[in-house]
């Protein structure tokens, strides 16, 4: 207060009071501002997802559907293209395969009737051929038609599980020999698939049991988990189809990948995670095979479906 010594006592008293009031006001303002900051809601920040897959969790594994989840399109169709190229069947049979593939790509979902027809076609084609022969051909067909159709995003998900030290299985209605070739080429653990009957290493044209589809997939995963000592609540499953809801519902970490409309709706209602690796262009595009003859059939089929829809 020495700076105020030149003031008269009355002025000194008034000035001191002003200084004191100013300091008090400033202090009150500072406290008020701090209190407002303390009361203000924290800025919205997305909650960090827990790290998944969990490194070193040996009780966990991942189960991946194949068609349109790991691979664009239907694996059985691509296999059929390879067999046609090798003169296993005639053009009229190819037309049936092309129709089924076009439907699958346009509808975006599996149709049980079409799948059964495709299975019957494949069984009749391979009947009398040796299992070893089809396995060797399957390796060639993978390089010719399938490798370039693997979804990079789904492949990365599978690799994340492998890097975490977990086993990764394909679970598909496709013939187990095809599924095993694809799993091996992708570096996965193995594959569950539909089993075709063989006697002395030769296909009979019949199935062992039923196609691995829908609820059958869930039962296969349940059985494999029991044999492997897995905890399904710590496992993950990935699929594009509502037909695989039974399998997805088994695990603690279900993912809808490139989902059809029914699965997308169900996944949202259940708060499942969704991943879609299709661009708008790819989603709308009908997968026309590279071979000119096959492409003409598939293109004609797509046009017929579009025309039929327009007339309804």
TrEMBL record:
Gene3D superfamilies: HAD superfamily/HAD-like, SG protein - dephosphorylation function. Belongs to the HAD-like hydrolase superfamily. SerB family. It comes from Streptomyces neyagawaensis. The chain crosses the membrane at residues 286-307. Residues 1-51 are annotated as: Disordered. SUPFAM superfamilies: HAD-like. It comes from the Bacteria. Keywords: Hydrolase, Membrane, Transmembrane, Transmembrane helix. One of its GO terms (molecular function) is hydrolase activity. Residues 39-51 have a biased composition (Low complexity). Pfam families: HAD. This is HAD-IB family hydrolase. InterPro entries: HAD-like_SerB, HAD-like_sf, HAD_hydro_SerB1, HAD_sf.
């Amino acid at each position: 207060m020495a700076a105020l010594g030149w003031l008269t006592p009355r002025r000194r008293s008034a000035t001191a009071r002003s200084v004191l009031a100013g300091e008090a006001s400033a202090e009150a303002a500072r406290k008020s501002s701090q209190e407002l900051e303390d009361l203000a809601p924290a800025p919205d920040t997305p909650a960090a997802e827990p790290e998944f897959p969990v490194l070193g969790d040996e009780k966990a594994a991942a189960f991946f559907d194949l068609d349109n989840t790991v691979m664009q399109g239907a694996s059985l169709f691509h296999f059929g293209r390879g067999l046609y190229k090798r003169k296993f069947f005639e053009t009229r049979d190819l037309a049936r395969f092309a129709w089924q593939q076009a439907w699958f790509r346009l509808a975006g979902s599996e149709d049980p009737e079409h799948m059964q027809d495709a299975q019957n076609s494949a069984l009749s084609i391979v009947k009398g051929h040796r299992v070893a022969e089809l396995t060797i051909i399957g390796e060639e067909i993978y390089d010719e038609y399938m490798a370039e159709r693997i979804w990079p995003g789904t492949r990365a998900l599978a690799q994340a599980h492998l890097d975490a030290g977990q086993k990764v299985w394909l679970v598909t209605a496709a013939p187990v020999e095809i599924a095993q070739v694809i799993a091996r080429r992708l570096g996965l653990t193995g594959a569950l698939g539909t089993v075709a009957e063989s006697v002395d290493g030769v296909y009979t044209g019949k199935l062992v049991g039923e196609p691995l589809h829908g609820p059958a997939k869930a039962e296969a995963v349940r059985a494999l988990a029991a044999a492997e000592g897995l905890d399904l609540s710590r496992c993950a499953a990935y699929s594009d189809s509502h037909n695989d809801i039974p399998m997805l519902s088994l695990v603690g970490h279900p993912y809808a990948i490139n989902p059809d409309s029914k699965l997308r709706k169900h996944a949202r209602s259940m708060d499942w995670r969704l991943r879609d690796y299709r661009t708008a262009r790819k989603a709308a595009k009908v997968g026309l095979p590279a071979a000119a003859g096959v492409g003409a059939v598939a293109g004609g089929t797509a046009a017929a479906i579009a025309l039929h829809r327009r007339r309804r």
